[in-house]
């Protein structure tokens, strides 16, 4: 299971966000460049199609593949009260022929996405991963070199933390409290809920940038 | 301390001593009152109330500080400053009010004793303390330096000039500070900072962009390339070069749905074989009576042609639950044997059967199994809900198998799915009773006899008599009718059910089903024993169930 929240930030403030995260997390950022292929199962595998995501990490010299299945989210009154989405997730590293394998099973490519940005992974009550990426679409199949951003001016911020059924409430609390630190720059919410941008983000970003400017002097 | 005003003794100005006490002390019982004029100028009662209120506020603040000190937490300075300013203002107001009439009052010490006798005169005197007085003099000296010899009015002029200069300097400084604040975007210190609001148009644009982005990332909206336009680029990126060859590419994007019909109920060859077997022996086997069919029996007995479970799957339990994992070679032999049987099958099912057989040859690994698990769990949850909601026993069979069918379709190839299938099958009401064909003959006859007592028995006997010549489709109707609703026709689900015997490791369900059967309790007597075979294989079943129900 994992807890996840998403938010958007204007591209102009991404650097300020990076500075803020650097200060909060204390770890260096890692570059992220992931080619995400979303496969849907064909009718031979059942009436209800299942969806599987293959993530190819292109940031490393040798690409590494991960398969990921996103399950249903926790539902109920309790789930509605928490501001974080808790959902089942199955993830695994796989060999590089996973794509061919899934194709031969009858899965078909539904859509693909290239995510470029940076990520911070740190421990703060839970193992939290903050990913700030620009989602790019590819005009032609598999053409990762020709990817263009889906929304040029806006980038996606995603905060995830793995959880288990027993401890998900603590993880939810850790993620929520961390989200509060980012409140000056962005609103974070469950993936399906859109919250808009923070109107004062420009001021907050300016102050972050100016502070760092002073430091470098 | 008490104060007296005018010629009339009055009530204490201080908050502590109650007025009634004063009156009690003084011999005349009648309470003295302030001079009427003074009363207008200063309402002593209100002063007292305000003073008491102020005292309480201050003591509260002190208590808060005490608590902060004890608990070692950082206080919120904003709040504390606010409280201070409030207290300060209140005190200032009280003092101002009293100052107005202070001339009418004289401070008279009440408790004089040895302790404060010495200091009281000093406290009461209006003369400044020596240090303050000295300081005052020094300041005056500094101010009037150079002016003392001038006539007084000139001194005044000069002082006024100085004041003006200082005033202008202060104004200029304030202006500079305000300008600097604006330049740095710090906002004014006083008053609420204006929250910049987004222009409506801008906000709408951003909202639109956000929706686009979220939809793209989470659901893939706007990213799908139409199948026509999907052709491989001339140069693949490096990470895909060795993964994809052109041969594979073409087959992936073609729409294979033409081969399979829409709702592909899983149609196993084994089913066919068993049905064939059943058909050959009409009278003995057919069930009509829905009875839970333990897969243990079916597994071992059934696939009469399926002897060995697939060896390559080391981790698949070689138990009777392993029904689905029949190796293809054996299936193929079965298929050849059963070809003529398949002629009876409607075209649709034939195709499905072919499809199934093809699929069987490439069983999926555990990943796939897991990948469908969550969906299964969800659906099972739904099924269970349906199960519980439906009151009538006959309806049980209809609500569940639809999802069952879906489960089974998806699970055909995964050995790990068997557990799930077993779970799902427990939910099934009565269709699974079709497995009876796979039961031992004794059990079948027992069930059949038991079924005789049911109201449907007439139909059943009729159906069984004609079974041999029937095609598959009416067979399914028959199975449905076992529940008592002849109109319903669930074409393929029962065939599936035959495939997967009921892994009735959930005794509760079994009991439930038994209870809901009317009549043939005898038939169930043998079933629990066969269930025991399955128990070891169904270890994780209850846990999964719980997850589903969450």
TrEMBL record, chain A:
UniProt-annotated location(s): Nucleus
**Cellular component, GO, one term:** core mediator complex
- GO BP terms: regulation of transcription by RNA polymerase II; termination of RNA polymerase II transcription
Work out whether the entry's keyword set contains Methyltransferase.
no
Keywords of the record, alphabetical order, are:
Activator, Nucleus, Transcription, Transcription regulation
Per the record's keyword annotation, is ATP-binding included, yes or no? no
Query: Which parts of the chain are coiled coil?
Result: none
Q: Quote one Gene Ontology molecular function term.
A: transcription coregulator activity
Q: Just give the chief location class.
A: nucleus
Per its UniProt entry, which superkingdom is the organism in? Eukaryota
Q: Pfam families, from UniProt?
A: Med18
Task: Give the protein family.
Answer: Belongs to the Mediator complex subunit 18 family.
Q: Its biological function? A: Component of the Mediator complex, a coactivator involved in the regulated transcription of nearly all RNA polymerase II-dependent genes. Mediator functions as a bridge to convey information from gene-specific regulatory proteins to the basal RNA polymerase II transcription machinery. Mediator is recruited to promoters by direct interactions with regulatory proteins and serves as a scaffold for the assembly of a functional preinitiation complex with RNA polymerase II and the general transcription factors.
* Assembly and oligomerization: Component of the Mediator complex.
Its name, as the record gives it, is Mediator of RNA polymerase II transcription subunit 18
Q: Which gene encodes it?
A: LOC105050465
TrEMBL record, chain B:
Bias type Low complexity, positions: 1-25, 329-361, 393-417
Name any GO cellular component annotation. Answer: mediator complex
Q: Which UniProt keywords apply?
A: Coiled coil
Does this UniProt record's set of keywords contain Nucleus?
A: no
Positions the record marks as coiled coil are 156-183
Statement: the UniProt record of this protein carries the keyword Lipid metabolism: no
Specify where the region named Disordered lies, as residue ranges: 1-27, 282-417
> InterPro entries attached here?
MED8_plant (IPR038795)
Tell me which domain of life the UniProt entry assigns to the organism this sequence originates from.
Eukaryota
* Composition bias type Polar residues, residue spans: 295-308, 316-328, 369-392
Its recorded name reads Mediator of RNA polymerase II transcription subunit 8
Source species: Elaeis guineensis var. tenera (Oil palm)
Q: Give the gene name.
A: LOC105050413
